[in-house]
Amino acid sequence: MAATQKLLVVEDNQFMRALITELLEKEGFEVEAVETAAAAVRTVSSFDPDAAILDVELGAGPNGFDLARILRETAPEIGLVFLTNIPEPKTIGVDNRSIPKDAAYLVKESVGDTELLLRAIKASLRGRV
User: Fold this and answer.
1) Cα–Cα distances in angstroms (integers) from residue 9 to residues 1, 56, 91, 124, in the given order
2) CA within 20 to 30 Å of 73's CA: 2, 50, 51, 53, which one?
3) What predicted TM-score, i.e. pTM, was given to this entire model?
4) Measured on CA atoms in the order 44, 75, 126, 16, is the torsion positive or negative?
5) pLDDT tens digit string along 23-68?
6) Are 56 and 80 in contact (CB under 8 A)?
7) Do the Cβ atoms of 51 and 8 come closer than 8 Å?
C-alpha cells in the first residue's frame, strides 16, 4: 500500500484554510494547515510534506513567494501550488521569475471546481506543472 501523501496548506484566511483542508482530507491526503510563513517553516521539518499549497498574501512577514523560496532551499523536492487572489504577480511588484518554474499558479476565483486544484496538486507532486 502506498504511503499517504502529505500536504501543507498555508492560508491566512481561517475559513479558506478549513475548506481546503477538509477537501484535501476527503481526497485522502494527510494535511497540516497553518496561517503564516513562519508557522509553515516550523512545520516543514516535523511534518515533511510532499507538496505545499500557498496563498500569496499572508499578512505581516514573508509572502507566499518568499515562502516558496525558503521551502525550496530546505526541501528542494517539495511540490508547490500557489492558490491566490492575485491574478497577476506583477500587480504586487513581483515578476514571474519569482515563481518556481515547476509550480502551479491558480487564481482562487477561477477555480470553478475541486478537480482543477487536485490536478494541480498531483502535477506538482510529479514535478510536471
Assistant:
1) 25, 12, 24, 14
2) 2
3) 0.89
4) positive
5) 999 999 999 999 999 999 999 989 999 999 999 988 888 889 999 9
6) no
7) yes
